[in-house]
Structure formats: C-alpha cells, structure tokens
Design goal:
It is a single chain. The chain is mainly β and 155 residues long. The protein binds 2-acetamido-2-deoxy-beta-D-glucopyranose (2 copies).
Length: 155
C-alpha cells in the first residue's frame, strides 16, 4: 500500500535586477529595483512514505514512550515535483531536504528543503524553503528564504 500526500505549492517570486558590487567587502546601498519580474509556478509535490520506493524516510526519532505522537521525528526527502497531480506526469524537479515534526500539540512540520528544477526554463535553478508547515491546513504559506540560478536574489 502506498500513502501519497500531494501538496500543491504555488510560489510568487519577485526577481530583481542585478546590483553592481565593487571590490570591497561590504557596502550598503539603497535597493532600487530596475526591473521587477513575477513568476507563477504551479506543480505537484509527491511525498511518498511507504511502498517499495519511499521518497521520504525516517532518519531520527525522539526517545519516547508516548504513543501516537510523532513529535521529534525527522524525515529526509527526495520528493519528485511534477506538472500534473499524477506521479506519472512530467517530472520537473525534486525537493531535497528534511522535515521535522516540530509541534508538541497539533501535528505540524518545520520544512527545510531545496526545490530544484531539472526541466524547462528553470532547469538548474532552485528555491530554498525554510518554514513552518502546518500540514493539517489545506492552504499554507511557506517562507522562501533564497534560491539558486534564476531564483538567486543577487541574480
Ligand atoms: C520507555 O519505557 C522503557 C520500558 O518501560 C523504559 O526503560 C525507558 O526508560 C522509557 N523511556 C522513556 C524516554 O521514557
Ligand atoms: C538540464 O540541465 C542539465 C545541465 O545543464 C542538462 O544536462 C540536462 O540535459 C538539462 N535537462 C533538460 C530536460 O533540459
């Protein structure tokens, strides 16, 4: 049996024009965006916990006897990102990293992962997520703390 959670993430990213750096270690300037771009990304995130090839594996667990609680569980993930809701649809990248069951109350995660794209316009670029992730809520906002390639904030 396979348990699959499909999480849909929509990101709105603002990419700004390149600031010019001189040969010094540090200089603070007023940030002026010459060109503001908005990219809407729509894809499906497959987190498979069981079956022959789980994409999320338990790597650490708290030493506790209280049953039912997952508090402290840490999973490492390499989850595929696809264009459509089916796992068989075009894979456009993967989410690699961790999530931790970080709440002692209502189950909730802290997610730390890199959404790397391997297909299309954003091949080679990635988005860094470090955020609370209240998985029981159907609509969630996750913090994007940076990115690589086309999503680099100093691009
Ligand atoms: C869990 O229970 C075992 C056996 O009853 C006990 O030896 C152990 O100390 C307990 N661990 C914790 C973290 O409470
Ligand atoms: C993505 O980029 C890598 C490295 O440049 C390249 O090897 C690969 O063929 C590209 N994949 C697609 C689907 O464009």
């Amino acid at each position: 049996m396979e348990a699959r959670k499909i999480l849909e993430l929509a990101f709105i990213l603002c990419l700004a024009a390149t600031p010019v750096y001189s040969q010094r270690y540090s200089q603070t300037r007023r940030y002026i965006s010459k060109e503001k771009k908005v990219t809407n990304l729509h894809f499906f995130f497959h987190d498979t916990l069981s079956g022959k090839n789980p994409s999320a594996v338990l790597v650490a667990q708290a030493n506790r006897n209280k049953s039912g609680s997952q508090f402290g569980d840490v999973y490492a993930i390499d989850d595929p990102l696809t264009v459509g809701p089916e796992l068989t649809s075009q894979v456009i990248g993967n989410a690699q990293g961790l999530y931790v069951f970080a709440s002692q109350g209502i189950p909730s995660l802290v997610s730390i992962y890199d959404l790397g794209f391997t297909y299309g316009e954003f091949n080679g670029s990635s988005i860094s997520v470090f955020s609370r992730n209240p998985v029981l809520e159907t609509e969630r906002e996750l913090a994007v703390v940076g990115g690589r390639g086309k999503f680099s904030i100093i691009n």
